[in-house]
Amino acid sequence: MLALAVSGVLVVGACGGGGEEAGGSGDAAAAGNSTGPITYVQGKDNSGIVQPAIDKWNAEHPDQKVTLKEQTDQADQQHDDLVQNFQAENADYDVVSVDNIWTSEFAAKGWLQPLTGEYELDQSALLEPTVNAETYNDTLYAAPTTSDGGLLYYRKDLVPTPPTSWEEMMGMCDIATQNGMDCYAGQYAQYEGLTVNVAEAINTAGGSILSEDGKTATLDTPEAKAGLDALVKGFQDGSIPKQATTYQEEQGRQSFQDGKLLFLRNWPYVYSLAKTDGSSTVKDTFGVAPLPGSGDGQPGASSLGGHAAGISVYSDHKKTAFEFLKFLQSEEIQRDWLTQGSAAPVLEALYDDPALVEQFPYLPQLKTSISNAVPRPVTPFYPAVTKAIQDNAFSALSGSKPTDTALADMQAAVQNAIGGK
């Protein structure tokens, strides 16, 4: 599973389901426009930051109390629990926490209240990519509550200035060889993290996976080929170690902390662990930078992580649910979640707060990462799309398919996926 530093360590993954026409209108969306007690549903709160926030709300709203329902810490089980509740048209779940790759699926099925009209939220203070990730067919369906972006961890004792392009980074691999370590790794096992890393490579090279309307696969381009080729060549020449095809987040983190990697692509949660984990050999010798770009002076295009809160169309108390969404996006809660649980905020101003930057030195780099991030493919058929990407990308990286063949097969499989085949 893909581990993100959203709530302690939240896990995100490719899950079942799919959808077709955009919904959220009709009788269900129009009903339940009242106040009263509500239930907020999310994955296990490993960091312990959610209940204190709810306690604050309940103290201020004694007649509109929120009850937290925790799911498991497994993303596929969280997803399936929500699907079952929605399919039953159950009013028990009022506000639901959704991974940003689920929003379009749930919106297309008509399960999330569109955040328009009397439910319109002012999102102008948020980092724009976080809003884009929750937007389907030009309509916002969920309120971003936490975010995440990829970062480049590097050995600052060996590389005083971090690379700004992939080519520059690959040119530094001799330093790794001279110091008896591997050069670079990301997450290349066959799971959701592979989709994240491949999407970053393709987007950074100027390519894309889907058209803007989400109806056409766009992997048959020179830019997409250049992105996947960069990773394939890294494995072929040893700049990326062969064993990285088994790496999820934790394997890469451990390798970097053990002093075995010069560069590592990973999430912000690694920062505090690399500093405080007693086994870390690099606690005083690593730095953090935005992901390397394509050489055009721009940083790399991180895949966007994070969660949002959506209102179930079947809720009986949508007015309270809407006010609770605004509460979760408030500066007070966003600041609490960062300082108490290292959850990356969605409010842009917090990344420039001097006191917070002193406490979390990686915030400026994370802001750059998220500001330049690209959501994973926004489609109600995401589970099938990510499988198509993983299957064919892994074949290319492991050497069982040439890049051209893998991309052609990926193009066909993604097109079939978004066609519901």
From TrEMBL:
Keyword Lipoprotein listed? The answer is no
Per its UniProt record, what SUPFAM superfamilies does this chain match?
A: Periplasmic binding protein-like II (SSF53850)
Q: Name one GO cellular component term.
A: ATP-binding cassette (ABC) transporter complex, substrate-binding subunit-containing
Listed CDD domains: PBP2_TMBP
Note the superkingdom of the native organism: Bacteria
Recite the UniProt keywords alphabetically: Signal, Sugar transport, Transport
A single GO molecular-function term is: maltose binding
Record family assignment: Belongs to the bacterial solute-binding protein 1 family.
What is the name attached to this protein's record?
Answer: Multiple sugar transport system substrate-binding protein
Organism expressing this protein natively: Kineococcus radiotolerans
